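Format notes (please read before filing issues)

Several people have asked whether sequences and structure tokens are stored in separate files. They are not. Every record keeps both together, in the order shown below: the sequence lines, then the token lines. Line labels are part of the format and must not be stripped during preprocessing.
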Amino acid sequence: MTTVNPDQNVNPERLAESILNGGAATESDALALLATPDEELFGLVHAGSRLRREHFGMTVKLNYLVNLKSGMCPESCTYCSQSLGSTAEILKYSWLSTAEAMDQASMGIGGGASRVCLVASGRGPSRRDVGRVGEIVERLKDENPEVEVCACLGILEEGQAEALKEAGADAYNHNINTAESFHDNIVKTHTYADRTNTVEHAKAAGLSPCSGLIVGLGDYLTAEGQAAADDFAMIRDNGFTILGQEGGEARTEEPVAGCGGEAGCCSDRQTTAEAAAHTDPVIRRRGAGTAEVANA
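Then the structure lines:
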């Protein structure tokens, strides 16, 4: 396993300048950056922001997640509240219907999302599962051709990535989670190779492998986060603009039918200050798999 020499120092600003001039970060550079002391973190963030602005300006893309199937997963990933043996009191439900999935996706798209990610718990999809997700993808692309669609269904077998691509999916989300040397410490029901092979299946089918930073939680999987309006405010307050909304304010939607602010609905949403006061995640009780309206 590669380790970091504590005496090895990398100047983030100089490294950023080198990359902007056509250079590349080495493995030792990356490892040294990971060991950056807390007191030097702002300098690291500033240097990284220079690279981000060069390639993406100050624009961010909103991705809305629809949890098609929650909990009841046979895998043993020790960090996951949906995994085998977890005692977390999460929402558990089987597959949403195509109509239910479309309703959830429409809320996110109406709020400004330019990508929808369709997620399902489990080791990986069956042929029938791929077919049902493919139907949702086709509906989404037919009704919203400008919206990207990403799937996150676990480990893929031969031919499944191609079926998703044929349905119209643009990307496949499948995080590796940890180094191969540490993999068996967090899960034993599948291998590191199972995950890397899935990424290769996705790439071979023409799907873009997807992973990245999650900013804001508009009802993320099993945890209930802040309202979408607070996410928009956070993005705006940090000087960013949302893709597709460069010319104006973030769109806001009228309450969905049945949501008039009554008890058990919007009035139960946490404020940003209330959410910050919690040290434990608040279990999601609204959105996909419930009769309540999402925080979209």
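For reference, the curators noted about this record: Residues 1-7, 252-269 have pLDDT under 50 and may be disordered. Strands lie at 59-60, 63-69, 115-120, 148-152, 171-173, 208-210, 241-242.
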